[in-house]
Amino acid sequence: MTFIPRKIMSRILSVLERGKSILLLGPRQTGKTTLINQLKADLFISLVKPRTRLAYERDPDRLTREVEALKNGPQLPLVIIDEIQKIPALMDAVQDLIDSGTAKFILTGSSARKLRRQGSVNLLPGRVVTLHMDPLMLAEIPQPLPPIEELLLYGSLPQIITANSNAIRQEDLDSYVTTYLEEEVRAEALVRNMGTFTQFLKLAGIESGNISNFQNISKEIGVSNPTISGYYQILVDCLIAERIEPLTHSLTRKRLIKSPKFILYDLGVRRLAAAEGISLPEKYMGSLFEQWVGLELLHMLRQFPERSQLMFWRDADGVEVDWIVEKHNEYIPIEVKWTENPHPGDAKHLKTFLNEYPTAKIGYVVSRANRKQKLADRIFAIPWQELPAIFETLA
User: Fold this and answer.
1) pTM, entire model
2) What is the CATH number of domain 138-288?
3) Under CATH, domain 8-132 is a member of which superfamily?
4) Cα–Cα distance between 359 and 328 in angstroms, integer?
5) For residue 257, what is the enclosing H or E element?
6) pLDDT, tens digit, for every residue of 103-149?
7) In sequence order, what are the residues at sequence separation of 6 or more whose Cβ sits closer than 8 angstroms to the Cβ of residue 183?
8) How confident is the model at residue 250 (pLDDT cuts 50, 70, 90)?
9) For residue 226, what are the CA distances in angstroms to 4, 40, 109, 174, 257?
10) Confidence of residue 180 (pLDDT cuts 50, 70, 90)
11) Neighbour-count burial for 20-49, b at 16+ CB within 10 Å, e otherwise
12) What is the mean pLDDT of the chain?
């Protein structure tokens, strides 16, 4: 697979220079192992390898002995453990080694759920900086950019982006969803009726990006609302779904929606999980475009060390803004329109939001237009290719 430079590398190097350790979480095939292989580690342990995994399962104290043998001089050795969730018990040794100033670590994992499963195991709060490895952001995809339709149908996992044809992309996605979602993630459910969880995965793909309605899904597959809530939590813990909360405070509106949205982390994975083909109705593409923009915003926000958040805004009367970026105590409202010809009418709800919230200074409509346009005072329509430019003023 072609190596693609990743923006997160600068964050990793910055954290390591401060002498801190890192927990790098991300779904499989997002490029975690490829990325950390670019670093010079004093000790690299891959728990993906069965023989290595068995050795540390039998003798967890081996890690402490090996790391203590590395200490030689004032500089802390760097220890990388790939797929740490396969032996959560090693986290105790890692904590002791960090606390004693023996080494700094990069720990990668594809399931926060497995690290929490034992109850006594934690994610080392205060001892590590948690970073997220996502599918490729727009700024990381090699030029020339693929058509937006391809990104919506096939997603942006590195091995999918670099594949030579859509036929190969489809085959690889099918294999990924079968082996990852339907086996590993389903096993996390710990339910007797695996068929029910499989039905849920399909509905989660179909409902991705919509405001959650546990009652409708529970009726569809015949389980309780709490069970559906638990299933979604499994997807979030396994880094398969993103939970997006609504903005719920307002000085004038008392009927703001309070239910979250769940979005599957990659649109190619979403399509295969939903058992959909590649010939989707044009009106459906607008929903996928909105999800793609939301995921892109979320992934870009994760590149900032400062606190930031992605939300949405909607009241019961239908007034809504697709995405709200909160950063530096300011709001940036963003509407998404599947059109090549944005017009001032597309800015209607953005105007409402800007008037409602004084900390919101500017709003955007993301579309398929060829170039930037001014739609109203403080509101601009931008091509989807220019989405990263929103964050240039926030850095």
Assistant:
1) 0.94
2) 1.10.10
3) P-loop containing nucleotide triphosphate hydrolases (3.40.50.300)
4) 10
5) none
6) 999 999 988 777 765 454 556 767 899 999 999 999 999 999 999 99
7) none
8) confident
9) 41, 46, 27, 30, 20
10) confident
11) ebbbbbbbbbbbbbbbbeeeeebbebbbee
12) 91
Nearest to 36 by CA among 24, 47, 27, 26: 24
Residue whose token pair is 């090996």: 66
Query: What residue type is 158 in one-letter code?
Result: P
pLDDT digits (tens, 9 = 90+) for 152-175: 999 999 999 999 999 999 999 999
- CA-wise closest residue to 313 among 375, 376, 342, 355: 355
Q: Which of 249, 252, 243, 197 is nearest to 223 (CA)?
A: 197
* Residues paired with 246 in a beta bridge: 312
Residue 367 binned pLDDT confidence (cut-offs 50, 70, 90): very high
Q: Name the CATH code of domain 290-391 (choices 3.40.91.50, 3.40.50.720, 3.30.1380.10, 3.30.450.20).
A: 3.40.91.50
